[in-house]
Amino acid sequence: MTNSDTDAEHRNNLVAEMRKEEQARQNGYRERALKLFPHVCGRCTREFEGKKLRELTVHHRDHNHDYNPPDGSNWELLCLYCHDHEHTRGVQEQRSSSGPADRQDGPSLAHSPFAALGKQLKPPK
Ligand SMILES: [Zn+2]
Ligand SMILES: [Zn+2]
Where are the domains of the chain? Predict the structure, then answer.
């Protein structure tokens, strides 16, 4: 029975091929983005060339790394620092927007029915 052998071999080849394609896709969009755009960070506008080019990364505007339109409309070249900032910014904005709301809840609770209840429960002299 050589049939199962070739089947297994074929499958292994397929997996290897898919892995290769996946890697090519991952590396591919950076290469393509670097060809499409000038090698400049979109935030701090620093220029990157030669060895420094490694510090220039591709940011996905919609944060979906699988969405890679060939025209580069979902890509933005950002240096490592600005890229990091870009991803933590959203988190910080979320925190600060929920922060004040939480604090506003505090004082309003003090004027809750419980406070009035406390006064009513005081025994009259
Ligand atoms: Zn930058
Ligand atoms: Zn990003």
Answer: 41-90
